[in-house]
């Protein structure tokens, strides 16, 4: 059972969760959507700015 | 780089203060526990991919800060990490250690049966912080991390609970800064220490 748990590949649902991940550069006030996070982490897109952050350019 | 706990990425005063001193990047994976539950391999792979994503932002090496459940994910990654800071991690429980002297699989499925070997191989500097008033995880749990991790400092923060970054943000920021700026000179290095206002 334990072995199964370790070797189980990520499910579609789990991959979807990773694809919904977001990355926030708090220092620069940039929020990124990490679309296709699991398959291709290079595909990060800037999606917005936040004036709440202290060093937003 | 900051990995939050189950509550998700919420920017608090701690993060604002850290962002004024360092470049701070937070990563948020929705429904974190569901994603990682019961699959240590998956947890490790996610940690690796989070690290790769940071590389996309042009960052070669970084300090990794993990809070509560996020700290468990952080424990799986040491590629390009200069120092690791764990705030009230929940991966291990004190009774696991006291039952038979050896650790079993992580208490929440973050780790498999080779948890002791994994921790022993984590050679980067690690700071483990617990709040003295933590009622979710006994703060004494930090002793396990100090015993099993080869390069670990363990400190208690006075006047703080499980969300110690909310209870004592100034103390946490100053502790993290001291550690990042000189882990070898950190004041409570090698012994149980209490950080007070």
Structure characterization notes:
The complex is a heterodimer of chains A (57) and B (197). Chain A is of the alpha+beta class. Chain A has one domain. Chain A is built from 2 helices and 3 strands; from the N terminus they run H-H-E-E-E. Chain A has helices at 2-7, 12-19, and strands at 22-25, 30-33, 45-49. In chain A, a hairpin with a 4-residue loop joins strand 1 and strand 2. The longest helix of chain A has 8 residues, at 12-19. Chain A is rod-shaped, with a radius of gyration of 16 Å. Chain A starts with a helix and ends in an 8-residue tail after the last strand. Mean pLDDT of chain A is 56; it is low at 1-7 and 36-57. Chain B is α/β, with parallel strands linked by helices. Chain B has one domain: Alpha/Beta hydrolase fold, catalytic domain (Rossmann fold). Helices cover 38% and strands 17% of the residues of chain B. Chain B has 9 helices and 7 strands. Chain B has helices spanning 13-21, 32-36, 40-56, 69-74, 94-100, 115-120, 142-148, 164-167, 169-181, and strands spanning 2-3, 25-28, 62-67, 81-87, 126-131, 152-157, 193-195. Chain B has a 6-stranded parallel β-sheet with strand order 1-3-4-5-6-7, with helices on both faces. In chain B, strand 3 (62-67), helix 4 (69-74) and strand 4 form a beta-alpha-beta unit. In chain B, helix 1 packs parallel to helix 9 (169-181). Chains A and B meet through helix 1, helix 2 and strand 1 of A and helix 1, strand 2 and helix 3 of B. Strand 1 (22-25) of chain A pairs antiparallel with strand 2 (25-28) of chain B.
């Amino acid at each position: 059972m334990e072995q199964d748990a370790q070797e189980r590949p990520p499910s579609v649902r789990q991959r979807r969760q990773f694809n919904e991940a977001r990355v926030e550069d708090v220092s620069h006030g940039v929020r990124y959507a990490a679309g296709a996070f699991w398959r291709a982490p290079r595909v990060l897109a800037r999606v917005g700015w936040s004036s709440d952050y202290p060093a937003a350019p | 780089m900051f990995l939050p706990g189950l509550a998700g990425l919420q920017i608090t005063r701690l993060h604002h203060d850290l962002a004024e001193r360092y470049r701070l990047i937070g990563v948020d994976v929705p429904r974190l526990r569901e994603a990682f539950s019961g699959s240590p391999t998956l947890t490790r792979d996610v940690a690796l991919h989070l690290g790769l994503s940071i590389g996309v932002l042009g960052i070669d090496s970084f300090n990794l800060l993990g809070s509560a459940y996020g700290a468990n994910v952080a424990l799986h990654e040491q590629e390009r990490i200069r120092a690791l800071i764990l705030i009230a991690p929940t991966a291990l429980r004190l009774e696991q250690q006291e039952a038979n002297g050896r650790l079993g699989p992580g208490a929440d499925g973050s780790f498999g049966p080779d948890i002791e070997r994994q921790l022993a191989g984590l050679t980067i500097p690690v700071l483990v912080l617990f709040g003295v008033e933590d009622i979710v995880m006994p703060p004494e749990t930090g002793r396990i991390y100090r015993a099993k991790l080869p390069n670990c400092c363990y400190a208690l923060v006075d006047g703080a609970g499980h969300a110690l970054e909310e209870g004592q943000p100034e103390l946490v920021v100053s502790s993290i800064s001291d550690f990042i700026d000189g882990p070898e000179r950190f004041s409570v290095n090698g012994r149980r220490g209490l950080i007070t206002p």
